[in-house]
């Protein structure tokens, strides 16, 4: 914030390149030291003087011709510290936010750049796992952040809807399907059928042959097999949709792995033409030893294509048919090697863009109460149950806090689900996350409920104060002058930079941490200031700060995929 003005101010007196000046500018750690600082160490050579002397001399010159946004410049050691003129900045920032409203922090710079985000990508007939939740919510937040920065975003659900396991499921369904009522909790029943197949096949190995034949029938498009497969997809999706609705996430495309079945031969052909394909023990592979990676398997010796082949076909489809400029994959860190291989093969095929525009956005594992949730080892924890429990806990808290709330159910859902989402997104995405019930739902901690609650508090203040934005005059701000509100205003002013950083790093936690800071500083302000007391003019100014804070918090909640409510 105001970096540009500081560059303007400084470039009259020093001969460094403006970009370098801008890069050198720092924000002092101690707020009392000033709002912006210019370190003079790099100038020592040019001026042939010690940095502290340079800073002192510059201070004198600069103070004689200060731009109106600056209050003063002070030399401290080798630094030249600048203090902004508070009234001017406060009026400026508040007027900006008021004008931009919900578009505050948005940018048009990337207009037209198409980004395909591969996210969620759950597997048919298997539980919606916790790593899929992470992919869904991190992907959704990145999509929102990218959209706000002007990118043209496509959210793609790359469903796991193909593979030999469907042969097993078909056989299981034929044999025991009548014992399972698939009209509700279908995914659990399909999973049970799958587990049963594996158990029974241990006793009767012939079942495995049957399953192979069933998958072959599916590949050949035989009607009965295809009908069953479609049914599994339909009932699984109907259930996933419920979870997506609860999470408030929508997709632009559902393009499962099976969508690429008829596009695989062309990929293989292209690889062969380009001399990349080799036969190894009957399988078709692309050798990647020159890049210190194991080979990328394209086709197994039995003729089946693989996960990687489908990802190659999908990447080329997204690029060539869907017109994507950038391909982003929000998938767990355990698939790092897979994506390195796929991206390298794309590059070797002559797709120069692949090196820069294919991006794997990995994330760590999520634990619930310190436990890994895994569908293996029979320890199945369903995401749906976790979400339902979170809503229940939230309901209990709201019942206690605000028993007269008219839309308790809606609020409990938004707060419970929000707690899980925020707990996920507030950590650097590459770190593992532990979800602890009491912590995530604590209304005073660094949590989703805390942010949502602060938003509601701000809304209620504006209602009580009958805030009228038209009455605010940014040219004469007198009632916002304490240190706490100064920190708050500066923080709000920095939001566009926060968005840039979140975009660059593909990391929603940048936004989550920022909004926690905003809430904490606001609450400090709220606890020390009588916002609705005093002259009407001052009240309007203070409420304008409240309104700007509310705008920014609401925006962050939206970006992260949480709902905001006027009352909690
Ligand atoms: N369905 C896969 C899984 O559950 C994730 C797919 C990720 N996306 C991709 N294009 N490979 O592990």
Structure description:
By secondary structure, this protein is an alpha/beta fold. Among the domains are: 82 residues, Gyrase A, domain 2 (2-Layer Sandwich), CATH 3.30.1360; 88 residues, no CATH class; 175 residues, Isoleucyl-tRNA Synthetase, Domain 1 (Orthogonal Bundle), CATH 1.10.730. 54% of the residues lie in helices and 10% in strands. The protein is built from 22 helices and 14 strands. Strands 6-5-4-10-11 form a five-stranded parallel beta sheet, sandwiched between helices. Strands 1-3-2 form a three-stranded antiparallel beta sheet. A three-stranded antiparallel beta sheet has the order 7-8-9. It is globular and about 90 Å long. The model has no long low-confidence stretch (mean pLDDT 94). The site of arginine has 9 residues, from helix 12. Its main location: cytoplasm. It is found in: Cytoplasm. Monomer. It catalyses: tRNA(Arg) + L-arginine + ATP = L-arginyl-tRNA(Arg) + AMP + diphosphate. This is Arginine--tRNA ligase.
